[in-house]
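ok trying again, last paste got cut off:
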Amino acid sequence: MEGRNFSEMEDAERSFLGCIMQTSRYIYSVMNQISVSDFILEKHRKIYAAMLDFASQGIDFDVFKLESYFYGRNEAYVCERQLLFEIKENSPAIGLDFYAKQIKVNTKLRKMYDFLNGSLNAINDKKGDAGLILEEIDKNYNLLGGQINEEGPAHISKVIHDYKKEWEAGIVSDAIPTGFVNLDYYITGMKPGQMITIAAPTSQGKTAFALNITVNAAEQGKRVAFFTMEMKAKELLQRLVCAKAAVNSKLLDNIPLLSNEEAAAVSNALNKLNDLNIYFDDNGSLDADKVRARCQQMKMEKGGLDLVIIDYLQLMQAGDAENRTVAVTNISNKIKQMAISLNVPVLCLSQLNRDMYKNKEEPELYHLRDSGSIEQDSDIVVFLFVKKNDPNNKVTLKIAKNRGGQKGYLSHEFIGENYLFRDWTVSRQPDAQGYLPP
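nice, full thing came through this time. structure:
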């Protein structure tokens, strides 16, 4: 690390070790904060590893026990008695927490330096292949973020302090409403870090439903990234225009057939959509790592990111997985981790198994296609389906999983020619069990 003052880093390590040598029980207060790899010098690593070994056995130690420890392992040449005494005698008896914090800061700086140095090496080693360079750098960047932001267990008093601070500031919730009154009553909005799965059989309107949520969130001032694996951005835009202008989708393919009123409605819808922060990515060959990289880039370049929508999970690339179940499991795990690391809700569309209606009239969690991991990773799972004998425009939403609240059934109106979903009615009240009548 050229340019960094190594002597200051080494002094912090020596003072830290010296404090513990003077009162060995101090190690129990820091052993979960400081690891062996946090030290720069190999000698300091070995001394601290020996201390941890004694502590794990509940044995008090001093300089003489440490000397015997290294002698018994034929490592006396590494940590001589003179070095051990110098560390103890030239270190303060107090300030262990202060030196521990210094060591953690130095560790983060060292990892940042290694990341930057590795990025430069990647550029030099892979000249001309910008895509591979960016992918490798982004992968290392995400790994670095997880390492330097890692925190240990938080005492409940800290959690309470943070909660009261938000409460007193009037921050009720950072959840994003879906825009559907009945659905938001159940799930209380889409919260940062959540993976929300919307699943439906083919041609039941799951993409239209996700697009409706996209516009509803964007109209609240949110920035939304919509990743599609099977449609082009122009097709998605047409669906948004149909919903916003209440114009039959067939007419957009035959513009001369539009009446003056319909043409004005389309123009007005385009103007309104133009002002929203919606970003489409129609690269159908994306994998979860690339989606995460592009989201991270958006957060930095577009002034933030509030909601990610993926249409749909089973079409994402998964590399060289041994089978489709393993592939979907890996994708699902990465999407959940992406939601946590980006601190945004991720709304993910999913297919259902084709044989779901053979023995069941409604979907269950085990009908999620290709992997049970989707069920495990998702905080919320909502199924869209049409019940037998229901009118064609009535779609049932089944909240099959909800970590933060109730499960239940909702009814929505789906105007297919407009790709528009609406609450069946907003006037109904929950029954005694808290369920809204279908």
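cool. The mean pLDDT is 79. The domain at 1-150 is CATH 1.10.860.10 (DNAb Helicase; Chain A).
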